[in-house]
Amino acid sequence: MDFNKLIARVKNILLTPKTEWPVIAGEQETVQSLFTNYIMILAAIPAVVQLLKLSIIGISIPIVGGTYRLGIGMGITQMVVAYVVALGVCYLMMLIVDALAPTFGGEKNQVQALKSIAYANTAGWIASVLGLVGLLGSLAALAAAIYGIYLLYIGLPSTMKCPQEKAGGYAAATIIIGFVLSLVLGMVLASVTGLSGAMTGALSGSLHSSSTYTPDKDSALGQLAAMGQRAEAAGKKLEAAQKSGDANAQAAAAGQMLGAVLGGGAAVEALAPDALKPFVPETLAGLPRTSFSVQKQAPLGMQVSIAEARYGSGDGPSYELTVTDAGGAKGFMALAGFGAMENEEQTDHGYEKTYHQGGRLVHEQWNKSGDGEYTIVLGERFIVAVKGSRVANVDALKAALGSLNLAGLEALKSQGVKNG
After folding, report:
1. Averaged over 44-57, what is the pLDDT?
2. Rounded to two decimals, what is the model's pTM?
3. How many Cα atoms within 13 Å fall on the side-chain side of residue 23?
């Protein structure tokens, strides 16, 4: 994958779309190359933002002054499912645009139809980062949605060869069908994850590129570039498997492609449930363990192991400990670490903040009622969270989490990782 070309394309389609669409229409591409070199990379951005917003930063509830935060295990499940659904929507919308072409005087061509969908979606994907910034994110999402419709409208005459005077109706029909499709898939997503729809994205800032630009491999852009390269390599295997006609080989190659993107370039076997048990002690902060569960999940083939325990009972202090091995989604967890905005918010009821400490992503929250949460990400793979109720202060949460064998858990970050 040419990362310089990707950045230039994003900049041009957003800033000079009228001149960029004819260039796009004339390029030699395939469905597979469009997915691996563009769609699979940019569609990952809102998925990561969704995880950060729902499970790391949380959603503030103004009336009661608290913050709702989805459990990290469910957050990862939601993220993976939303990402795969986003890719599926692109494919289905390609079929819709292609099928509608003759109705509006255009020419059927699936590759050109996918170009129409992919590049019209660029604004939403790129600006999804503003979803972390409250009202600004909502306004940006609305602006991106409107701009995406405009991009589709001016692009269809170039890609699908429809008359300019019919482009408005073509775009409108596509948007209406796409809206219904997204609504239906959103309901499916809700039934799978217990939540509704995935976040959409939008645009922020300007992007600049040059023929000599190379992103820092340790930066978020560098991570996305590596993700694209892995997807490209896996895509070639998928293409070869498709040509072979071997259904088993095609399924395996498709799984490798998904793993290449989500797993950070490696197939990852999440720790067995028994391996997490030593990190969930029988007592925490001097309180006995009153319940305990451990399980291993595989949402869409991406393995996640979760151990949960409760401590204390009655009217006194109580704690809830969750230890999660992100496993097959460790590549996304790395991006989450890069993308997390360090922030602090004070209210009349308490505070919450997200920051990095010793190379680890940390989130803490506290309110005056004596409830709080302290979460830390270890080795870009393990998430350890302690929630407390009726505890003295946030230092009690920190001490409870600090009493765990964090170094021992972090030392397992490479276990089950199968490179290559």
Report:
1. 73
2. 0.49
3. 11
